[in-house]
Design goal:
- The complex is a heterodimer of chains A (193) and B (73).
- Chain A has 193 residues and is mainly alpha-helical.
- Chain A has 2 domains: 88 residues, RNA polymerase sigma factor, region 2, helix turn helix motif (Rna Polymerase Sigma Factor, Chain: A, Orthogonal Bundle); 89 residues, Winged helix-like DNA-binding domain superfamily/Winged helix DNA-binding domain (Arc Repressor Mutant, subunit A), CATH 1.10.10.
- Chain A contains 9 helices and no strands.
- The longest helix of chain A has 24 residues.
- Chain A is globular and about 55 Å long.
- In chain A, 34% of the residues are buried.
- Chain B has 2 domains: 42 residues; 28 residues.
- Chain B has 73 residues and is an all-alpha fold.
- Classes of the chains: A mainly alpha (193), B mainly alpha (73).
Amino acid sequence: MTEMTRVEKIAAEPTSFKREMLSTLPSLRAFAVSLTGKHDKADDLVQDTVMKAWAKQTSFEMGTNIKAWLFTILRNEFYSQMRKRGREVQDSDGAFTERLSVHPPQYGSMDLQDFKKALAQLPDDQREAVILIGASGFSYEEAAEICDCAVGTMKSRVSRARTRLQDILKVSGEADYGPDAVATQVTTHNHSF
Amino acid sequence: MIKEDIVSQQRTRVQAGRADDGLGPNTDIGSRLRALYGSVQDEGVPEQLLDLLEKLDSAEQAQKSKDATRGGE
């Protein structure tokens, strides 16, 4: 049986919780990749999240925002695992490190590689903020709830993230003319360590 | 009256913040973020996750029918 027919089969089932969960999984998984920087770790994290969510499903009200609910569980799970294990050394590229299976036609792969590196230089709280707002499609209110912070805090994280990304990208654009320029600027801009 | 003004000012500010947060569809950063995120989303759901969902679901169904049988006795 191919993956597509399995997904379709679940989509046609009356068990709404499973079906709604399935519809959120691709986005949830992309968020997990952005947190862990690795596909295999992200998949483990999503599995743990699915099990947690399943066990807690009575606390979820059907018809409310299952996406935000699942993102909250995944994020809490990620940080609690990080605390337990101690912070593992992320590899240098950080978020979205591994393969890019699809290169959207409007960007060369080099362009997105640079962007991944720029994202990886952000502090964790700014990176997750800019991803939740800019890519996952949450409102500031939803993102603030997922990250358990004030809406104003979420806004300022996004704004700082955007400013730094712009700085880093501007610099790495110029860096095509000399690698030393990158090294200098990366050090200057990297406040997260 | 004053209170209403503040509220409406705040509302305007919120909307402005959303509009010029620099992450819209025509911005460099917004479109790159979505391209990257979308590249993972487009991979679909891995088999082992589908297996897990089905396992959880069938365990739940089995439990339910067990409970139903017991309830009927």
